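Action item from last meeting closed. Structure (375 res):
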């Protein structure tokens, strides 16, 4: 297969965009929400419509669950910071820099402390500062300024949620399936690389790279699951509970880390020749199953068969049992014996966790449309 670098620039751009569907849909939703908030703000005669537009850009996330949480945080922070800042502003002389500085300290100390404890109030200190320092906040009543900002930000929040629901809607469970699918495909590459090093040259740089990238992908799975939980709690989705997916994904990656530690050096003789073919079979079947499972999850389709992987595991278990019966493990140094037994344990755990992930894929799979009966 030719590398992407050898393809024409237009083709490379199309391929790059094809893998950025979620980002492209988000950009469209933000643009639609911004224009709609601007039009409604002007129609309603809001004092500063750009606050509504700012809000749509800030709270719009890749999924409805993410947008819901960001909207709630933005609104709570604005109301809390605005009311607290307004109370301070009404107690201080206007247009006096010294008293404004005193009010700024009085507002920031408790609000920043509160925001450090509860992230929902991260916007509160910013709102209070704007109220105390902006020219508009100095020219009108603090209470009027606060009410205007709440109305504008409330409009932007409502517009953002409405657009999230009707314009190219993206549910967090779909993002969770895509993120988990990418992680599974990465773990398939990880498994092939690790097991290949047991009977050949260990690619330490490649192992470290996949350790880092798989942890990054696992973080995306966890973030998508958090948004999916919010959608379920808000009754915006009846998809399965995302927590088992995160739990199983973490276990699969932990299995890879254990296998990687056991494979930091090639197997000693005669284990490299005796177990090499069986390990190669596990690597091929396991890598293929991981990739197929990842594609199935991303497309929310039925999981693939585990038969080839189970057959490869039985082959390895049989070879390992035969080697032990021959007494070949008795003369091994303790460190080498520990690595060998850790490898066997991790491969057994990998089988169990892959079975569990197959069940999760089956739960998330969309039902196939019924075929019409022939007349």
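Sequence:
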């Amino acid at each position: 297969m030719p590398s992407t670098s050898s393809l024409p620039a237009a083709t490379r751009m199309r391929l790059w965009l094809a893998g950025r569907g979620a980002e492209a849909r988000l950009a469209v939703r933000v643009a639609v929400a911004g224009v709609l908030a601007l039009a409604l703000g002007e129609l309603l005669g809001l004092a500063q419509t750009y606050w509504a537009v700012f809000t749509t850009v800030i709270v719009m996330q890749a999924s409805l669950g993410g947008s819901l949480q960001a909207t709630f945080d933005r609104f709570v922070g604005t109301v809390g910071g605005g009311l607290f800042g307004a109370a301070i502003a009404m107690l201080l002389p206007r247009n006096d820099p010294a008293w404004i500085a005193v009010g700024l300290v009085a507002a920031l100390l408790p609000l920043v402390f509160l925001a450090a404890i509860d992230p929902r109030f991260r916007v509160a200190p910013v709102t209070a500062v704007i109220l105390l320092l902006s020219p508009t906040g100095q020219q009108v009543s603090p209470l009027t300024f606060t009410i205007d900002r709440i109305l504008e930000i409330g409009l932007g929040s409502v517009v953002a949620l409405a657009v999230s629901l009707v314009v190219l809607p993206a549910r967090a469970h779909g993002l969770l399936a895509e993120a988990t699918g990418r992680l599974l495909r990465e773990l398939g590459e990880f498994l092939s690389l690790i097991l290949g090093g047991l009977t050949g040259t260990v690619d330490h740089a490649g192992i470290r790279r996949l350790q880092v990238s798989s942890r990054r992908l696992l973080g995306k799975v966890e973030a998508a699951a958090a948004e999916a939980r919010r959608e379920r709690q808000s009754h915006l989705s009846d998809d399965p509970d995302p927590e088992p997916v995160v739990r199983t994904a973490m276990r699969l990656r932990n299995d890879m880390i254990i296998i990687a530690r056991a494979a930091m050096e090639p197997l000693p003789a005669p284990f490299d020749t005796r177990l090499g073919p069986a390990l190669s079979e596990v690597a091929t079947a396991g890598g293929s199953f991981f990739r197929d499972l990842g594609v199935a999850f991303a497309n929310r389709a039925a999981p693939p068969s585990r038969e080839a992987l189970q057959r490869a595991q039985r082959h390895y278990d049989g070879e390992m049992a035969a080697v032990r019966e021959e007494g070949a493990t008795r003369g091994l140094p303790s460190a080498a014996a520990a690595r060998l037994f850790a490898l066997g344990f991790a491969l057994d755990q990998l089988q169990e966790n892959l079975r569990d992930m197959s069940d999760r894929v089956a739960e998330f799979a969309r039902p196939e449309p019924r075929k019409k009966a022939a007349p």
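Note appended to the action item: The chain has two domains: 13-166, 172-364.
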